[in-house]
UniProtKB/TrEMBL annotation:
InterPro entries for this protein: DUF1501, Secre_tail
Protein name according to UniProt: DUF1501 domain-containing protein
Secretion system C-terminal sorting domain location: 433-510
Pfam families to which the protein is assigned, alphabetical: DUF1501 (PF07394), Por_Secre_tail (PF18962)
């Protein structure tokens, strides 16, 4: 469902896009945003790019990352299990689908991390509802009309929609706008299937600055006008980027291969878009799964591995990470038509040169299934999203908590992610920001199990200079603006400790 843009905000944006035409709303300037303290803005990394591949239909995780040394797997799937001798060996008794040869090569190079058993409590098995849950970052019982990426992009582009960024804020390859990029300020994505056709479609089309009527239909019209206005602005930028960019290697002729080829040209052509959404369907494998699933993973593997080679050739690979997701996994047991029905937990893949590489988390436990006979999830999918936002896109933990309305421990997906799985982590102290600092610095920490904490400043000889924050803290994220007046320039230590004996220290430089 598309999110309706607020009428007043829409009219403000139309005034900007139409060259400052007034609608009686008063002048809007950048001063309102300039008054936001820098420490409370998102600490994002502008050069990093996230490419999301949606596996539409519900990917069968057990036949993607295969427990081929577990007899229970073969018992549950006598006709569709993939033999150990055919599969591609990974680690800890798990194997990759035999069609994913290109992905296996990247895995061996340390460029693929696989998070196992990702899901959420009380999973929904409806394609539509489950897709909305994954797109919005909600729990099963909460309906949200904003996408998690849309909420992130609000922190990245705080002046939207009053002022549009120079380059598209998000790009979706397809024809139907995803809920993923919606926000209470409108949609952040530009949607098209071909850059040149998109340019031809809107080329020469002026922004429509007529005021929509103050009715429900007028609000819908306003939403459509907001999309059209952004399309007009970005059509030329996208066309120019695709023209300037290049592919250094021939891409597969599949639809996904074509999508990756377009993204490659846009990135190499200079687009500063941070998030892309690609799509491949056909994963609703209720019948005759073996052949269909093999073709799908062959398509993904070829497209992704070609893209990685292309980006490496163009010295762009260090900026980019690819993430897969699907609305649910499949049932453990095969059905009567050589397929699988809607299930629960499944793996997610992360491809890039900044990932740690390898398997994350325990293998699927086929002995301890839920009451429906489905896999239990080990890690919440919002832990994954939070990790991606923080460790790849550079978002601070306070903003991450606001996006998901909860604190989630990160997973060891990237090289700069925590070394251990969440079970071994009870707290997290973020590096002070700014650092070096003068005047004040923002100290942020997260607590993953209730404890009494002490946040203190020490000199390099280990002497405590200031107890900054202390008390019983519930699970959550906390921040303290620490006044640095009275402290000499030099190096200090900020330490967070808990009543359970845990301690974490960060260095602070005062100018």
């Amino acid at each position: 469902m598309k999110k309706q843009i607020n009428r007043k905000v829409f009219l403000q944006q139309m005034a900007v896009l139409s060259g400052g035409v007034g609608f009686g709303l008063g002048t809007v300037t950048g001063k309102a945003f300039g008054q936001i303290p820098a420490a409370h803005m998102a600490n994002v990394e502008p050069g990093k790019i996230l490419i999301i591949i949606q596996l539409a239909g519900g990917n069968d995780g057990l036949n993607t990352v295969i427990p081929a040394e577990d007899d229970l797997y073969f018992s549950a799937r006598p006709n569709i299990a993939i033999k150990k001798t055919d599969a591609l060996k990974l680690d800890q008794g798990m194997y990759l689908h035999p069609s994913a040869v290109g992905l296996k090569k990247l895995y061996d190079q340390g460029q693929v991390s696989i998070a196992q058993n990702i899901g959420y409590p009380n999973p929904n098995r409806s394609h539509f509802r489950a897709t909305d849950i994954w797109n919005t970052g909600s729990d099963a019982s909460t309906v949200i009309e904003e996408g998690w990426a849309g909420r992130f992009l609000k922190t990245r582009y705080p002046e939207f929609p009053i002022s549009l960024a120079k380059h598209p804020m998000a790009v979706q390859l397809g024809s139907v706008e995803s809920l993923l990029f919606q926000s209470d300020q409108g949609g952040f994505s530009t949607v098209f299937e071909d850059p040149n056709l998109f340019y031809q479609l809107v080329s020469g089309t002026p922004s429509d600055s007529d005021i929509p009527p103050a009715t429900l239909a007028g609000d819908e019209l306003g939403f459509l006008k907001q999309i059209a206005a952004a399309s007009v602005q970005y059509a030329g930028v996208i066309r120019d980027g695709a023209t300037k960019g290049k592919n250094t290697i021939a891409y597969p002729t599949s639809n996904l291969g074509r999508q990756f080829g377009i993204v490659s040209k846009l990135i190499s052509g200079g687009l500063e878009t941070p998030v892309y959404l690609l799509n491949i369907g056909g994963f609703d494998t209720h019948a005759n799964q073996l052949t269909q699933h093999a073709n799908l993973w062959k398509t993904i593997s070829e497209a992704v591995s070609t893209f990685q080679v292309d980006m490496t050739n163009q010295n762009l690979a260090d900026r980019i990470n690819i993430m897969t997701f699907s609305e649910f996994g499949r049932r453990v047991n095969q059905n009567g038509t050589a397929g699988t029905d809607h299930g629960t937990a499944a793996p997610m893949l992360f491809i890039g040169r900044t990932v740690r590489g390898g398997l994350i988390g325990a293998n699927p436990n086929l002995k301890a299934l839920d009451s429906n006979g489905d896999l239990k999830f080990n890690y919440d999918y919002r832990q994954v999203y939070s990790t991606v936002l923080r460790d790849h896109l550079g978002l601070d933990n306070v903003r991450s908590q606001q996006i998901f309305n909860s604190t989630f421990e990160r997973l060891p997906i990237f090289k700069n992610s925590p070394d251990a799985l969440p079970e071994a982590i009870t707290m997290e102290l973020i590096a002070p920001w700014p650092n070096p600092a003068s005047g004040y610095t923002l100290l942020q920490y997260g607590i993953f199990e209730e404890a009494t904490v002490s946040l203190a400043l020490y000199d390099l000889q280990g002497r405590q200079l200031k107890l900054i924050d202390t008390g019983l803290r519930k699970v959550g994220s906390y921040s303290v603006n620490f006044d640095l007046q009275g402290y000499a320039s030099g190096q200090y230590l900020v330490s967070l400790s808990t009543s359970r004996g845990a301690r974490m220290t960060r260095q602070l430089v005062i100018q």
